[in-house]
Amino acid sequence: MKITFAFSKPNLAEAAGKVINKEVETTFAFNEEELTRALNKSGRELDFIFAHEEIFNTRYPWEWISYIKTSVGIKTKIVILLSESTDSWYREIIKRLSVDLEISLIPSGLTIDEIAEEIGNRVYPKTKTSDENEGGRLAAVMSASPKDGATTIAISTAICAAMRMPDKTVLLVDFNLKSPEVRDQLNIQSDRGYQLIQSDCDSGTLEQSALLKACEKLKDVPNLHILTGNQRREWAEKITIDEIGHFLAVARKTFDLIIADVHTFPDQAATLKCMKNADERIVVVQPIVTSYQSSWNDWFNSVWQHYGMKETDFHLVLNRDNKGALEGFSIEKAMGTKIVARVRNVDKGAGIKAINYGQPLYLNEGVETNEFRDNILQLTSWIAERIGVELVPLQKDSKAALKGKRKLFGII
Hints:
Elements: E1 2-6, H1 10-18, E2 25-29, H2 32-42, E3 48-52, H3 61-71, E4 77-81, H4 88-101, E5 104-106, H5 112-123, E6 137-143, H6 150-163, E7 170-175, H7 182-185, H8 198-203, H9 208-214, E8 216-218, E9 221-227, H10 241-254, E10 257-262, H11 269-277, E11 280-285, H12 289-302, E12 315-321, H13 325-335, E13 339-344, H14 350-356, H15 370-387, H16 399-402
Parallel strand pairs: 1-2, 1-3, 3-4, 4-5, 6-10, 6-11, 7-9, 7-10, 11-12, 12-13
Antiparallel strand pairs: 8-9
């Protein structure tokens, strides 16, 4: 095995060298000139190249990334360490080029020991992913029609579950490939996200440690991990079923509960694979004919039934509910399955504020969200019961909501 490290800091190179076995042929370059000599000598023979972007202080990202790609062999695995000092525009260019050129990324902000650990995991992979459905449980959430509110329901349920499962790990993943909104709704500004691990998912080499490092954390909810979506919306149809399958297999081994927010339209791999493999399939619907009748039936009849799924394999969450009893029965009849939770709309502009200012609606403890939070707890309790997890109640929790009791049609 041959590896080249291109780091500007000797202490980082020293730490990286310690995690590599002695029999590996390693070359260290501490500036661009030394890297050029190393690549001219043996670039085509390399198994790995790890390069910190700070090596290329005088060149544009598209120049040095293309240079590395053309200087190594087809099978060489390229890993770029992102710099904390790079401006947001250049950082976005690097992330986009990495997707196009199948280059792996290591996020900025890690300690030297964490970077060394990540290098070791890339060179000596440990994850075995023979069974895609082994491990944690997967709940996939989608809207019956665009903008029915699946993202808000997924975010709120993930927060609610994590707060009441303190000894469990929860992952919220934004697989709404054509319209990723979790990053915006939570006001996440970091480099982390699916783009850091897409190359690893595509090659089937994703490690649990890399997945964890690609996730964000939410303040005061330490066991909730958030993987934001790929900002390259045009890549939605290029991501493959196998890529998503590999990701889910690793995620199940890493987390106890995975909540995936997926797109309404099943014309992309993430929606198809998540819904097909999910332990719980949740469809968010509004009390609007175009949502529960036209959109849902069109997609179910043209796609889902051909994957061997029945209408009863899905469960409904009635969002922006107006408590109409007959409405609920009409929706169930039209969609051929049952409503498991009804979620009231919020007043005083709380919903708009949550989206525009990155303030999760579920964490808004104003009186205008009391009923909404109870409804989300009811849904979370239903999921917990289905996956065999007992929730740990908070002092403020409604006992009825915690037990999943709900007046579905306002007449029970």
